[in-house]
From TrEMBL:
It comes from Micromonospora coriariae. GO terms for molecular function: transmembrane transporter activity. It is a multi-pass membrane protein. The chain crosses the membrane at residues 12-32, 52-73, 85-104, 110-131, 143-166, 172-191, 203-223, 235-254, 275-294, 306-327, 339-357, 363-382, 403-423, 481-502. This is Drug resistance transporter, EmrB/QacA subfamily. The lineage of its organism: Bacteria, Bacillati, Actinomycetota, Actinomycetes, Micromonosporales. The keyword Kinase does not apply.
Length: 526
């Protein structure tokens, strides 16, 4: 192997694309896993006889593990080398997937999802670091478009694949499918990734780790417990949130003291990184939080199968597939402050239809709305991440991508928890049915029975009720979803505020070093 500086050409050469293939394969596994599990939640409810709030922990536990391990990835990438660490992450994710398929109880499944998340948490930030170092900052827009491939495949293929596997085989296969992909990715990584050049001189920030990782885990645990309790007054909600927030604040105050902090908040002195991160954070809370509820509407209010719900979600991914490559190219040529607001406007236009949903809303309208939202999403996510990373110096890219990824995970967790709480509280306002209680002794509501009947029609034979009651329950459930979507819609509108501050002038093609010269990232040529 020989080292060669990247050329000034905008095209991604074969060596860069070979490295990108490894990263894309790993990202496909982790992103597919999130979208596949999202349509499996109703199946977990019936399979393990658990509440929605309980099975939602299969998503939450994964995210908690991600948030815990992501802060370590920047330091570990420098210390042990990205190739070695990336392969460890792939192995953890693959082993975790295999164990998930063996779970006999919901508790076991949640525990194995934590192991899966420890691997998955490192895949994306490490992948972004590997690809940015390979291609150089001047091609980061095109690079992000390549990394966007799994982000397109996730929304399109994840729900469809998950629905098909659950309907035709069993829920176990949504995890077993990761095993062959994981083995192929490990072999490919060994062959294609450049040899590591770790930097053992940097010390590890143990004090920072003891504050940040437990702090994030506790805070997100408290937030994620909200859907189950429905109130901040419960000790399991406010106590971990308070302790977690205190640890995170303590970390923020402390992190400016050590020379090599666990999470380098000094990078926020870069204006572009700060504005892009805030824009991304607000957007993720709104869009990802509501995004998990789209399939739930099709499953619970419309009574669709998991496969049908997956197919109904496909237009969103198709829309993103059209605009993401265009947005990646434009991000290298046009300031994103001039393009992202238009993409956000498309999301707003598409999103509005979901604030008006009822039990008979046209699938053509909802499919068209998802397609328009996808067009907007493809022009939003990657350009914002491009803006966040492209002006960083080469040695700061690993820590910069760690910051961006951890903000994404926190935003996604908060969004999912907030939207779940709003939806749960809205549904709880439905009228109870006199004399009808669930196995735990709680009164069954009209909306609760209607949703259960949509998913398991045989219940109506066991519990004969007036058809108008089911109709009222579905109307109430649809209004509950619409109210929740209104909140998300308002948050998307809020994203326009930080987006207005995104750079409207062309940025340097590559970051400058202390002498004012362009930084050139090395690429390994085989």
């Amino acid at each position: 192997m020989t080292q060669q500086s990247v050329a000034t050409s905008d095209k991604l050469d074969a060596a860069v694309l070979k490295v990108a293939g490894v990263v894309v394969l790993g990202a496909i596994m982790s992103i597919l896993d999130v979208t596949v599990v999202s349509v499996a939640l109703p199946k977990f409810q019936s399979e393990f006889d658990a509440s929605y709030a309980r099975v939602a922990w299969t998503m939450t536990a994964y995210t908690l593990a991600l948030a815990t391990v992501i802060p370590l990835s920047g330091w570990a990438a420098d210390r042990f080398g990205t190739k070695r660490l990336y392969m460890v992450a792939l192995a953890l994710f693959t082993i975790g997937s295999g164990l998930c398929a063996t779970a006999d109880t919901i508790g076991e499944l949640i525990g194995y999802r934590v192991l899966q998340g420890l691997g998955g948490g490192m895949l994306m930030p490490l992948g972004m670091t590997i690809m940015t170092r390979a291609a150089g900052p001047h091609r980061i827009g095109r690079l992000m478009a390549v990394l966007g491939i799994p982000m397109l495949l996730g929304p399109i293929c994840g729900p469809i694949l998950g629905g098909w596997l659950i309907d035709t085989a069993s829920w176990h296969w949504i995890f077993l499918i990761n095993l062959p992909i994981g083995v192929i990715a490990l072999v490919y990584a060994q062959l294609a990734l450049p040899k590591d050049a770790p930097e053992p001189s940097e010390s590890f920030d143990f004090i920072g780790m003891l504050m940040l990782s437990p702090g994030l885990a506790l805070f997100l645990y408290g937030v994620s417990s909200l859907p189950e309790t429905g109130t901040f007054a419960e000790t399991k909600v406010w106590a971990p949130m308070l302790v977690g927030a205190a640890l995170v604040v303590a970390f923020v105050l402390y992190s400016f003291k050590p020379r090599h902090p666990l999470l380098d908040l000094r990078l926020f002195t870069n204006r572009n990184l700060t504005i892009a991160s805030v824009t991304l954070f607000v957007f993720i809370i709104a869009f990802m939080g509501a995004g998990l509820l789209f399939p739930s509407y099709f499953l619970q209010v419309r009574g669709e199968s998991t496969l049908a719900a997956g197919l109904l979600m496909a237009p969103q991914g198709i829309g993103a597939m059209i605009t993401m490559p265009i947005a990646g190219t434009l991000a290298d040529r046009v300031p994103i402050g001039r393009t992202v607001p238009f993409a956000l406007a498309l999301i707003v236009v598409g999103f509005f239809s979901f604030t008006q949903v009822d039990p008979q809303t046209s699938y053509w309208l909802l499919g068209g709305s998802l397609f328009v939202m996808g067009l907007g999403m493809g022009g939003t996510m990657m350009p914002i991440m491009t803006s966040a990373l492209r002006t960083l110096q080469a040695q700061d890219v690993a820590r910069g991508s760690t910051l961006v990824n951890i903000l994404q995970q926190i935003g996604g967790s908060i969004g999912a928890a907030v939207m779940s709480v709003i939806l749960t509280n809205e549904l709880n306002g439905s009228r109870p049915i006199p004399g009808l209680v669930d196995p735990s002794g709680k009164p069954v509501t009209e909306a609760g029975l209607a949703i259960a009947a949509q998913q398991r029609p045989e219940l109506l034979q066991q519990t004969p009720v007036d058809p108008s009651l089911i109709e009222r329950g579905l109307d109430f459930a649809a209004k509950s979803f619409a109210t929740t979507f209104w909140v998300a819609f308002a948050l998307v509108l809020l994203t326009f505020i930080p987006a207005a501050l995104l750079p409207r002038r062309r940025q340097p093609a590559q970051p400058l070093d202390e002498q004012g010269e362009l930084v050139k990232a090395p690429v390994v040529i085989h």
